[in-house]
Amino acid sequence: SLCPHRLLNFIGSLLPGSFLHYCFKNNIQVFCPAITDGLIGEFLSQSKHNIIIDLVADIRGINTLVKNSAKLGTVVLGGGISKHYINRAALCNNRG
Prior knowledge:
This protein has one domain. The chain is built from five helices and no strands. It is mostly helical. 54% of the residues lie in helices and 0% in strands.
C-alpha cells in the first residue's frame, strides 16, 4: 500500500517546475485527504497494477507531524475536507 503524501512526493519528483516538485525538492509533505475523489482515484481504479492507497496512514502521518511541530501553519486550497482534516489533527493533538 501507499499513503497519499508519499504518492504526491513521487509525482512531484517527476514534474519539474510544478508545485509538487518544489515541495519534493524542499522536503515539504503535501497531504490530500480526498486524493481518490478525482482523476488520480479514477486512474488508480482503472490501473492494471493493484495499487492500494492507505488513507489511514496519512491521518497517522499528519497527526505525528502536528504533534511534533514547534509551530503550525497551513495553506488550504478549497475548504471542506482539507480544512477539517488539518483542524481535526490540531484538535486531536491539543494544538487547536
